[in-house]
């Protein structure tokens, strides 16, 4: 099993790598298009701003290779937002792998960023999360994707938003499975080991 | 519902976990890694590692333990203490830290906040504030270099103004350490925290004073903070995490239950 973590030059690459290693795999952090295309599983992590991350992907000439991926690909946090068509954060066009929009969260007088553990409600067609409970997962973000037909899990903070989205082989999680305790661990294991 | 966070803080000196009373007389608690793993297993929502030697000594401290911690635990953690440059921050994040907490260096060079936010994103940048209630003036004052008693001193800032300033500069979270309460276990400074909460638009974490379960209940209910940080009550097993979380849940506070099968 060849697992690559796309080197977006964002801050949480290492914690994603360690989480995969704890499951007994040896992932490679790379920005090499050929290695990414040849992998069995691709993880697109990201923290920071959408504009900066898209600039990095552009400079590394990774936008077209990522769009062409057919193997299971998991976007985490900003990585999920990059999978959408557009982000309001920096008004930037994203990868357009999942036809959705990333917008600033509307939370009333609640603090932003939305930071901490919140309940995630998985849809019946969610391949990575158990649907029986609404497990707590760890979030840190100020922008989010609205709930729509591509949503496979939701979360509430001021408003309901998409905690996970999917379009074919592309799956996004707004929370951080690598920092979500045993729930996140089980989710990453399913992503790596299940038929998707 | 977004859960209130329980955050054990591990004060680190020379690679060991220590704890002092009102920032003084540090006593040894134990090795970092087993303590970190233990706290993650028993249901801590997040951990803070505060290198209390770093800021005041002005030396570069060995931080290789950050990577060892990141390899082992699967909850978020923050590294605090002596982070003065972007390069240093980048190194810690690349070792697997989730957040950086800046205290005295931000007071010396407030632009550091903006630079870190631009470089790493708002979610990585926590500002730690040591706030001292001056009974003579009746004001809350921000102190710096509190890790070393001989260098600890008042800054030019009043706490409320500094909170506004760091939020304006993009800070993603604030840890307000109420110095008068630190280590004495008489309860959080609910009054001050509630006052700061009213104009704090980012997550606010209470620090200093936890001594009993009802202190956590009070600070969540009366000051509406997002998380409560504590050290000695956990290190000395004065409060068991399971009892704390169970009681908070019974009080109707949103808490992430301890995962089944770990105890």
Automatic annotation (TrEMBL), chain A:
Q: In which pathway does it act?
A: Amino-acid biosynthesis; L-histidine biosynthesis; L-histidine from 5-phospho-alpha-D-ribose 1-diphosphate: step 5/9
Active-site residues (renumbered): 77 (nucleophile), 176, 178
| Record carries keyword Amino-acid biosynthesis | yes
Catalytic activity annotated for this protein?
A: 5-[(5-phospho-1-deoxy-D-ribulos-1-ylimino)methylamino]-1-(5-phospho-beta-D-ribosyl)imidazole-4-carboxamide + L-glutamine = D-erythro-1-(imidazol-4-yl)glycerol 3-phosphate + 5-amino-1-(5-phospho-beta-D-ribosyl)imidazole-4-carboxamide + L-glutamate + H(+); L-glutamine + H2O = L-glutamate + NH4(+)
EC number from the UniProt entry: 4.3.2.10, 3.5.1.2
| Compartments (UniProt record) | Cytoplasm
Coiled-coil stretches, from where to where?
Answer: none
**GO cellular component terms, semicolon-separated:** cytoplasm
Q: What biological-process GO terms show up in the record?
A: L-histidine biosynthetic process
- What does it do? IGPS catalyzes the conversion of PRFAR and glutamine to IGP, AICAR and glutamate. The HisH subunit catalyzes the hydrolysis of glutamine to glutamate and ammonia as part of the synthesis of IGP and AICAR. The resulting ammonia molecule is channeled to the active site of HisF.
Entry-linked PANTHER family:
IMIDAZOLE GLYCEROL PHOSPHATE SYNTHASE SUBUNIT HISH (PTHR42701:SF1)
Q: How does it assemble?
A: Heterodimer of HisH and HisF.
Q: What is the name of the protein in this document?
A: Imidazole glycerol phosphate synthase subunit HisH
Biological source species? Idiomarina fontislapidosi
Automatic annotation (TrEMBL), chain B:
For molecular function, the Gene Ontology terms on record are:
imidazoleglycerol-phosphate synthase activity; lyase activity
- SUPFAM superfamilies named in the record: Ribulose-phoshate binding barrel
Q: Does the keyword Electron transport apply?
A: no
Cross-referenced CDD domains: HisF
Q: What class of enzyme is it?
A: lyase
Primary location group: cytoplasm
Q: Name one GO cellular component term.
A: cytoplasm
Q: Which residues form the active site?
A: 11, 130
Give me any GO biological process, just one: L-histidine biosynthetic process
Q: What is its EC number?
A: 4.3.2.10
Task: Give the matching Gene3D superfamilies.
Answer: Aldolase class I
* Entry keyword set: Amino-acid biosynthesis, Cytoplasm, Histidine biosynthesis, Lyase
Protein's pathway: Amino-acid biosynthesis; L-histidine biosynthesis; L-histidine from 5-phospho-alpha-D-ribose 1-diphosphate: step 5/9
What catalytic activity does the UniProt entry give for this protein?
5-[(5-phospho-1-deoxy-D-ribulos-1-ylimino)methylamino]-1-(5-phospho-beta-D-ribosyl)imidazole-4-carboxamide + L-glutamine = D-erythro-1-(imidazol-4-yl)glycerol 3-phosphate + 5-amino-1-(5-phospho-beta-D-ribosyl)imidazole-4-carboxamide + L-glutamate + H(+)
Compartment(s) of residence: Cytoplasm
Q: Supply the Pfam families for this chain.
A: His_biosynth
The record's annotation in PANTHER family points to: IMIDAZOLE GLYCEROL PHOSPHATE SYNTHASE HISHF, IMIDAZOLE GLYCEROL PHOSPHATE SYNTHASE SUBUNIT HISF/H IGP SYNTHASE SUBUNIT HISF/H
Q: What does this protein do?
A: IGPS catalyzes the conversion of PRFAR and glutamine to IGP, AICAR and glutamate. The HisF subunit catalyzes the cyclization activity that produces IGP and AICAR from PRFAR using the ammonia provided by the HisH subunit.
Q: Indicate the family of this protein.
A: Belongs to the HisA/HisF family.
Subunit record text: Heterodimer of HisH and HisF.
Its recorded name reads Imidazole glycerol phosphate synthase subunit HisF
Q: Which organism is it from?
A: Idiomarina fontislapidosi
Q: Supply the source organism's classification.
A: Bacteria, Pseudomonadati, Pseudomonadota, Gammaproteobacteria, Alteromonadales
Gene label: hisF
